[in-house]
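Two proteins were folded this term; both appear here.
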Amino acid sequence: MLESGLHTIRLLESEALQKRNSNLKYLLEIKTDNLLFPFRWQAGMTGSINRKMPELHGGWDSQNSHIRGTFTGHWLSAAAYTVEETKNSELLVRANDIVDELGKIQELNGGEWVFPIPPEYIYGVRDGRGYWAPFYVCHKVLMGLLDMYRILGNTKALEIVLHASGWFTRFLEETSRETLTRMMDQQETGGLMELWADLYSITRDPAHLALMRGFERPALFEPLLEGKDVLTNMHANTTIPEAHGAARAYEVTGEERYRNIAESYWACAVRNRGTFATGGQTSGEVWTPMNQQAARLGDMNQEHCTVYNMIRLAEYLYRWTGDSEYSDYIERNILNGLYAQGHWVSSTMDSICQPLIPERKLVTYYLPLKAGATKKWGTATETFWCCHCTLVQAHSRLREFIYHTQDSSVSVDQFIPSELRTHINGEEILLTQTETDLGGSCNQINNTAVNGYGRPKLWSRDIRITAEKPVAFTLKLRIPWWVKGAPTCYVDGIETPYEKKQGYAVLTGEWKDNIIRWVLPKAVTCWPLPDEPETVAFLDGPVVLAGLVGEERMLYGDIRKPEEFIKPANERLWNYWTGDYRTFNQPVGFYLRPISQIGDETYTVYFPVRPTK
């Protein structure tokens, strides 16, 4: 099985690093007392409060919300991953303090219950009452605590999870399978099955294995194994974490049935269903019918949580198979999902009178794909949707998907500037990935700039391998789905042939101090709606382009040759190339730009195209 090498990967200057830094800033802005308030309130530690406290969190984290305190678990998880990479001491101290405080709260609650809601919420759902997702809340808290142990080694956090598991063991003992199935149909359980699988991998305690099996969802798993489509019009983010549970159960037990469930879910949700041009799915939080998307374009497409959680499912499947289908999916959803829906920052060019202080947007719950759409951005402390939660986790884990290792091989899966420091055959190697300079300096005379007559129709990455002495291993470079023509590989400036396997270029040899240049030709292409093929979105390589128009516009041309009616616009600024395009030879022209760069602008993604008369 492939390993992500998370602990040995560091981001370098890039959009990913900028997002990670914005995420770190947001984590530090959230006050510790506010993160702990719902837990203290539940434990009777806040005293008598008979007034509104405006400094407390609003929205889904407010005190009258049934899922209050959920964000705290995600905050802990994001803090753990961020501290591991950045070594930020303030964040580490605050995360450890929260764990310690939760330990005290657990003691006050009798030694097991450590949650910001009362256990009566779970009993209430068991009795058929309408409490909102109490299992989901418990999962997020336990997940954050377990990540504090798994990533940072906080043993107090593990101790809290172990004590809490006793409550759930008793609950399962006194609750029939029929009742638990009804509860799962009534309210989402989050990723409790995956959580118990993670805990079992640490303790190997049969009680934790029983918890994992207890939180299976047979009503979902069995028809998936039979090849039935049970996902159409089903709430996506209820079921994706359940697929995570099956995936992790396979890893900790080796039982093929669990692997088959996870792979069947993928086939049903992605491979057989089709995706939007962005790579994501869902409308109104449910899976669209298979290959039926035209009537589902609206203002509630592509929930952020589903983007992050499907990336995580793809990561599981990639580690098992090494197949580029999954790493391609991850790339597409990072670029057109995570980047498009979180931590947006405006431009600050004073020479064209833009504000000197950038405007920042935090997270948009959905990515609308209807004509004339606008993104709706949540606030820092007044909304706290579930997507705030996955926002902080997603942007603390971007490096996790870049490289994978197995025995004597390293795969480069995402083209994100970064470095990997790992050991192969007992020798340390450093792999550094950077973007090739395709712009050249605008201050010095140089061939790159002087010969740059137009925006390059390619991506190019430089990968430097450094070792104390020659090390024999296999380097795998992803050949992305969007590449136009054969990629070219140069080793130390010499064009080098490669073997193709599972969507990767395979290079085997001895490496010591080498530079590999990986050149990927690209083009603007059309992505049609499967049930309305004359309506298309435009992609520049893997990047979705959004038209800066407030309505649907008819375009004229051949969708097989979009270069005949779309071309680069405003392509060069100083020493870099932009990603802007414009239409031409149309009744009325307009501009397009990468969807991740859209902030408050009105935009349209899909356009009907008719052949030119």
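Next, the second protein.
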Amino acid sequence: MSLDPAALRKGITRAERKQWWLSFSGVAVTLILTVGILSFSVTVYVLKSTLFEEMNFHAATRSLVGMVLLFSVYVIYQQWQIHRFRMHLLAQEELFRLIGENAVDMIAVVTVDGRRLYNSPSYQRVLGYSREELEQGSSYEQIHPDDIPAVKAAAKEAAETGVGRCLEYRVRHKNGEWRVLESTASAVRDSGGNVEKLVIVNRDVTERRALEQQLVLSQRLEAVGKLSGGVAHDFNNLLGVIIGYTEALQDSIPPGDALREPVDEISKAGQRAATLTQQLLAFSRKQVLEPKILDLNAIILDMEKMLRRLIGEDITLKFEVHRDIGKVKADRGQLEQVVMNLAVNARDAMARGGELRIETTDGELTDKDVRRYRYVVPGRYIILSVSDTGVGMDAETQSHIFEPFFTTKEKGKGTGLGLATVYGIIKQSGGYIWVDSEPGKGTTFRVFLPFAAGAVEETSTEKPHAQRCDSVRTILVVEDEHSLRKLTRTMLDKVGYRVLEAADASEAIKIAADTSLHIDLLLTDVIMPGMSGGDLATKLSPERPEMRILFMSGYTDGAIEAKGNLKPGLVVLRKPFARETLLRAVEDALSKAAPTIANRDRESDPKSTTSQLVAN
């Protein structure tokens, strides 16, 4: 079936001509019959002539009847032709109706001044408005005020040039939600070539734009994550040296000395830098997590005193924890970090005071949420909501809040990593975080954590570290960073350990082969030039089966596993480390039996000075 508009107009014109010809023919035949009847009547009743008798009455009658029959056949034929064409028109109309009613895209016909002439039924499916509601107002009525100038400019351009262009703008759904539409306009010209109407095809791209934003954010996090993971090793080595020598200065400078305060500030700066490194690893989702089944309500209530001190007296803190909610599986320390960062963000948004509300409840993400956010996994979730009555955020700010180093605070008052860290922790825990906010109406962050079945796992208390043995122990320190190796040796020397040091694995192998001393502990960096720490331990262990092994590294777990030839489960001393952290890790390692490398998998205490390498 042809849908060519020119052919359709030609067919309509032809049908109209046939209709007019039929009408004229009917009038002509009617007039002829009338004249014939009148002529008979005049002859018979007026003239009373025998002319009528002399005429072939029967022949005349048959002629008139034949003319009537011929006209009737012609009428029937023309009506049949018109009927066929009308059925054709109805079929085409039905086809266009099916296209309009079932098209996913919204189709509208408007005049050049914006008056609606037609709206496809998909408007009601997508935006919630009926055809009558749309026709009552202007086509600009539901468009976001900030986007109206661009839409009018595009419509004017299409009306003047006859060529439309693709445009994106926001339209208000009937429920008040803003949807993003991708629009293309086509001009309809009259017989004079002037644009009289615009056919507009709109497509809802809200979900696509949300997915693109998620992708862009993930790519940014991945890029910064690779950067942070790449520099973490060298940066942590430098921080280790700074923190270690600062501790040595603090030991030698009494508290009342004028130099003690600058040294203390250096120490604090080093610790803050170490924390910053962990935040970088957190939002890139490469930090070490120790997930356990937890009671979210208990964690929130345990933090109450700390949160009240954190937000200040001018902000009212309210808890609304629902009883008997499900459990979650997460790292308690990281979960506390999430709550604290959201509370700090809320506090900063309420410079003149306000109300901070923290709520926990059971929830569920359904297929409806999946249609809205395709990355969502449906199921049961525990929802943590943190709401404030602060200044709120516009849509543009909300699109950037989880990006690393993005901040609305003035210079020097924020790193821009608080919410990025929250995002990374939640994502690594298998959850989601969404924000609802409007300028002047406050902000609500909703964290969805997957429901976890099982009993709550108690957090282990910190175990006392092992006591030092009276005999002198020998430690082989392998570290490619000279300053850190020197500092580590100094720390161990001061407490009575005998230290052998090597700059790389090959030098360590040579020292182990040449020395007659019993090496009690191999303290080695994991990733070094040449042979890795894991390969070094594998080579030396058969020769010295009683030697304990302690790994140290400033890399992320993924890099340690991939480059250090270590499998998940091994315990690694994290750089940068303080003196007490190093000594405790060494004493704990020396107090245990010396298993083979293949059997070194063991559980680590959550508050231990060492952490367990877990697979990413």
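The two ends are 59 Å apart (CA to CA). The chain is about 50% helix and 20% strand. These notes refer to the second protein only.
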